Amino acid sequence: MRTTATMLLLLVTTPAGSAELQPHTVAAFDRYVKATEARTAAQSAFLWVDSLPAAQRQSRIADLRAGMLLIERLTTLDGRREISIPDGLVHHWVGTVFAPGATVNEAVALLQDYNRHADVYRPAVVQSRVLNRQGERFQVFLRFSMTKVITVVVNSEHDAQFVRDGPDRARSRIYSTRISQVEDAGTPGERELPVGQDGGYMWRLNTYWRFLERDGGTYVQCESISLTRGIPFGFGWMIGPFVTSIPRESLEFTLNTTRKTLSKSRS
Fold first, then answer.
1. In Å, what is the CA distance from 256 to each residue of 6, 93, 252?
2. Residues with Cβ < 8 Å from 88, sequence gap 6 or more?
3. Who has the most CB within 10 Å: 93, 158, 239, 242?
4. 21 and 203 in contact (C-beta within 8 Å)?
5. In sequence order, what are the beta bridge partners of 93?
6. Where are the domains of the chain?
7. Contact call for residues 73 and 93 (beta carbons, < 8 A)
8. Which CATH architecture fits 2-264?
9. Which DSSP symbol is given to 154?
10. What does the alpha-carbon distance between residue 11 and residue 201 come to, in Å, rounded to a whole number?
11. DSSP 3-state assignment of 1?
């Protein structure tokens, strides 16, 4: 216990406990996002699962309809080469759930109800509100709380654009526009750290949602691309599990909660 406490103190009182977002890291992330969006635009399948070979697709859809969550790690290449992210890590996941009986309109309405996200997606989201809305475009505020050995709280703002592609389908893309880590969250002394000069646990977050009404319910897919700090030498035991596991676990929680909430609304 004393060793763990000492290492925790060391983490927050040494340069390894903080990181600074560099312009070349942002440029590399933007390049990764651009390549990913170009790949997605070139695909004919609306859902990731529908791009799989026939036998595998049938098996995965059966799993989804049985209540399972499907999640896969993705990597976007530049040609055949990986896209290097200097001084940072990209976390790229896609997940899908099936909400039996739910309609595409109900699924979209749930995601657009940002004022209630702190109720629906608690404890991951502890504050939420719409800052501005123009038609199907939203500017929103979300406060995230993430725990993995340590707890990190961030204030974030996002630009969300929803598109209806037909009576049975819709999609959205949501870009973070500002993310700031919060020190001493929930106390009278809480304060935001300067943007890009913090623990580096979340620097960017892009999500791409797809909603498809089919087979007596609605498939909900979310593709997530996030940017965190790299892992400094000697601190992998502390920072590594946080920055590598939180992106997947957050996506799993969000999709499972979405499915359960839509299912409850039908009961």
1. 36, 15, 6
2. 21, 22, 25, 28, 29, 200, 203, 227, 228, 229, 230
3. 239
4. yes
5. 73, 224
6. 2-264
7. yes
8. 2-Layer Sandwich (3.30)
9. E
10. 13
11. coil
Q: Dihedrals φ, ψ of 246, to 5°?
A: -60, -45
CA dihedral 29, 34, 36, 37 (to 10 degrees): 140
Locus of tokens 């997940």: 95
C-alpha to C-alpha distance for 153 and 149, rounded to whole angstroms? 13
Give the span between the Cα atoms of 223 and 96, in whole angstroms: 9
Would you say 100 and 119 are in contact if contact means Cβ atoms under 8 Å apart?
A: no
Q: What is the pTM of this model?
A: 0.89
Say how far apart CA 91 and CA 74 lie, in whole Å. 8
Strand, helix or coil for residue 151: strand
Average pLDDT of span 11-35: 80
pLDDT tens digits, 139-190: 999 999 988 777 899 999 999 999 999 999 999 999 999 999 999 898 999 9
3-state helix, strand, coil in the chain (%, to 5): 35, 40, 25
- Cβ neighbors of 249 (< 8 A, separation 6 or more) are 148
Q: What is the sign of the dihedral through the CA atoms of 102, 106, 111 and 115?
A: negative
Pairing of strands 217-229, 88-100: antiparallel
217 beta partners: 100, 214
Structural Rg of the chain based on CA atoms: 19
Per DSSP, the three-state class of 161 is strand
Q: Are 249 and 123 in contact (CB under 8 A)?
A: no
